[in-house]
Design brief:
6-stranded parallel β-sheet, 3-stranded antiparallel β-sheet, alpha/beta, Rossmann fold
């Protein structure tokens, strides 16, 4: 499915010792059955009012209705926990194992599927957080804590489990916790979302492989622009035309119109063969 020209470039980049960064978004998770955040499944009804994701996913909403926000996230967590990694996720695991320190994965997805597929936490920057974790709302510590395995909702109409207020608490101070995710009214930082580390990685990237994201958030755009300005190659994989694809082509890269699960195994095979 990929062109001979792209295959040669992929092999040549790795053979020359180049560093590869993969940047993934909602598209790769959608192939595992996780609805995109801004799609119909993102809407949430409280009483008689329907809230948009941009309203629910805010610290302001959490301050007003913390347990309703938690109920929404526990439902979303249930959707994520029922999903399984797909061929695109597994291909990126193969690439990390082949390249080691020359590989980095930056993901906008909070579902944890990359880690469940086998990518290492050390080389996976979850720049929007991880829905399987929580942290103290009062920031008594910078630590994140795993949400217990069985704490998720199967249906949108499911009520919060009895006693949940005693489970979703900070083990350090006893204060209520919040989902470990980046909200719309918050900013990227280093300690929780690897902001500076992502930009540093971009400054050393020779080939940026973008999969399933349209570039609607700031940090991914900065990463792509950093690679493009330095003369690095950008390869964008997406089912539809998008700003990343246009930027890639404008800077001498490639746009591959396909699902990640369909084309990533071929792309990664070309990269791995260049490493042999």
């Amino acid at each position: 499915m990929i062109s001979a020209k792209l295959t040669a470039l992929l092999r040549g980049t790795v053979a020359a010792g180049g560093r590869i960064t993969a940047l993934t978004g909602a598209g790769i998770s959608a192939e595992s059955g996780i609805p995109t955040f801004r799609g119909a499944e993102g809407y949430w009804t409280v009483g008689s009012r329907e809230y948009h994701p941009q309203e629910m996913a805010t610290f302001g909403m959490f301050r007003r209705q913390p347990w309703e926000v938690w109920r929404w996230y526990l439902y979303r967590r249930g959707v994520c926990r029922r999903a399984e990694p797909n061929a695109g996720h597994r291909a990126l695991v193969t690439l990390e194992r082949a390249l080691g320190e020359r590989f980095l994965l930056i993901t906008q997805n909070v579902d944890g599927l990359h880690l469940r597929a086998g990518n290492s936490p050390a080389r996976t920057f979850q720049i929007h957080g991880n829905i399987d974790f929580m942290r103290c709302v009062s920031a008594c510590t910078d630590e994140t804590f795993p949400i217990p395995d069985g704490v998720w909702l199967a249906e949108k109409s499911s009520p919060l489990p009895a006693g949940i207020e005693d489970v979703l608490v900070c083990p350090r101070c006893g204060e209520v916790t919040r989902p470990h995710v980046l909200w719309f009214d918050e900013y990227y930082d280093e300690i929780h979302y690897r902001y500076q580390s992502s930009l540093y990685a971009a400054s050393r990237t020779d080939l940026l492989l973008v999969v399933g994201t349209s570039g609607a958030t700031n940090l991914p755009l900065q990463v792509a622009q950093s690679v493009g300005r330095r003369g690095g190659v950008i390869v964008d994989v997406n089912v539809q035309q998008n700003p990343f694809g246009d930027y890639a082509v404008d800077h001498g890269g490639f746009f591959v119109q396909a699902r990640g699960g369909d084309v990533l195994p071929e792309i990664i095979a070309a990269l791995v063969s260049g490493n042999q």
